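Customer escalation, tier 2.

The customer says the design service returned an amino acid string that "doesn't look like it belongs to this structure." They asked us to rerun it and document both sides in this ticket. The original structure tokens are below, unchanged.
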């Protein structure tokens, strides 16, 4: 049942969360685990690792859990940079900008230089310029690439990316596939296949925060060679995910019915938004995530003033992205929420044109 948002209960469409909620199996696992939280979660840890290994067709030694994929991103950047420094090499982090913040914050915390590469005019990542930024540097380059990208929802061609990965064995690729399930673009294929094939310079991170809706439990993981996984694991505290997170993630992984419904509702919500943007004549890119990055009409001013207008209607939409102040990242809620949101959006943006 949809309740219109109010000052007491705003509609949150700003953090790319899953407003549908969580799998009933995950909920049951959470309820049942309360009596076990006095125990360390060694076994559930091993069981989730084994389930993920089976899911991706890799060995358990290739899977490292993190407290959200954000932790995995931090750990991997630190570990690869330290390995290079131990060999007497400098390290840099290369990424398209804008992208998800964890790559930047991980680099900043370790005082690693960042080569940020602006997006192309179509808001896709500029693979050629990213490659040039790596070739320009004699030390260890760590490429942080979200595919699809956040905030734009665009993908890079998997074939072109793989060709680069294969041609640059000394460059390390950290590929963030937080939104893998939502991709529509036929140029994309999931990069976990490259880990299965044994490409040694690639690592893929995934999360339970999006399709599975478990953002508050903080469960993510990486897939890499077993050797790299051993290195990454040495930078993560023992058992980084708590018992509720481990059990809920494992239950959710088996709940293909919830995953199907979650995807279906997100795609329906996306259609509602795209139809409205088309009616308003506003450009958008991608979209291949559970969000849509779209242009704002000149008359509304910048993203900040649009956000203020929507907040007056108790709707919280996405934040500022420097260099894209006339664009907004709108996270997708349930179809009912998006029907309400787009009706309000039509009033705010339509009336302004
Ligand atoms: N990677 C990308 C591209 C994201 O957009 C986000 C969150 O918005 C994350 C990772 C963070 O996921 P987690 O909740 O697993 O830390």
């Amino acid at each position: 049942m949809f309740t219109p948002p109010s000052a007491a209960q705003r509609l949150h469409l700003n953090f790319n969360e899953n407003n549908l909620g969580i799998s009933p199996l995950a909920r049951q696992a959470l309820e049942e685990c309360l009596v076990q939280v006095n125990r360390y979660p060694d076994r559930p840890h091993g069981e989730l690792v084994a389930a993920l290994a089976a899911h991706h067709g890799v060995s358990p030694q290739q899977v490292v859990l993190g407290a959200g994929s954000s932790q995995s991103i931090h750990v991997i950047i630190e570990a690869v940079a330290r390995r290079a420094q131990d060999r007497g090499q400098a390290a840099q982090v290369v990424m398209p900008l804008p992208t998800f913040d964890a790559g930047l914050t991980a680099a900043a915390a370790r005082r690693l230089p960042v080569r940020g590469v602006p997006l192309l005019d179509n808001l896709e990542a500029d693979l050629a310029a990213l490659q040039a930024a790596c070739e320009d540097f004699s030390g260890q380059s760590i490429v942080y690439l979200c595919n699809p990208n956040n905030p734009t929802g665009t993908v890079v061609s998997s074939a072109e990316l793989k060709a680069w990965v294969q041609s640059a064995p000394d460059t390390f690729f950290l590929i963030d596939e937080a939104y893998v399930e939502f991709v529509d673009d036929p140029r994309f294929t999931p990069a976990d296949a490259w880990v299965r094939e044994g490409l040694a310079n690639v690592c893929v991170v995934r999360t339970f925060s999006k399709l599975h809706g478990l953002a508050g439990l903080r469960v993510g993981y990486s897939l890499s060679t077993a050797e790299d996984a051993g290195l990454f694991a040495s930078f993560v505290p023992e058992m980084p995910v708590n018992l509720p997170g481990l059990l809920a993630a494992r239950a959710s992984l088996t709940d293909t019915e919830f995953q199907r419904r979650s995807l279906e509702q997100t795609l329906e919500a996306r259609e509602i938004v795209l139809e409205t943007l088309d009616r308003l004549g506003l450009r958008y890119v991608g979209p291949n995530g559970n969000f849509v990055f779209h242009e704002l009409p000149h008359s509304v001013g910048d993203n900040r003033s649009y956000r203020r207008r929507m907040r007056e209607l108790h709707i919280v939409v996405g934040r500022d992205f420097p260099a894209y102040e006339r664009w907004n990242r709108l996270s997708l809620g349930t179809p009912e929420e998006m029907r309400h949101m787009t009706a309000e959006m039509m009033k705010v943006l339509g009336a302004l044109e």
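Tier 2 assessment: The sequence is consistent with the input. The mean pLDDT is 96. The chain has two domains: 11-21+257-350, 24-254. Sent an explanation to the customer and offered a walkthrough call.
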